[in-house]
User: Fold this.
Amino acid sequence: MLKYPNSTGDIDFDSTLDKKDFQLCGKGYGYQYFNDGKGVLYEGEKKAIEESFREKYKSQNAQKQTGLIRIRFLVNCKGETDRFRLIGTDENYQEKTFDKSITEQLLTIAKELKGWKPKVFQIKNEMLAYDFYQYLIFKIKDGQITEILP
Assistant:
């Protein structure tokens, strides 16, 4: 058992949650999204992600559904995604379980995002694509998205 089960370490494959045919390009290691200082590697950048959630998320008028929801996942060298993991916290950063009408919607929309770009590094004279971890954090106020980070 992990000492810090919700830490930012690697996301292990879970046959009950993850696609069996999702392939990583490396040896199972993914860089963190911020390793190269290029920001969000998505077609249309963060603005396109925000627009997607604004169009698809059906706001809930849900009292006591306030805090942060983080969805963390892997993007492989082909720009495909999997291994989505979600954790919620209240406004004091204590773990919190949000209503499924909110979390399932956020997960579904996040999984539908298809504009991810591979992380590319130059090694000697060759450009190589790598797997990387990405996260989206949703600030929620009474069931409504007020901000998306990073």
About this structure: Residues 31-149 form one domain. The radius of gyration is 16 Å.
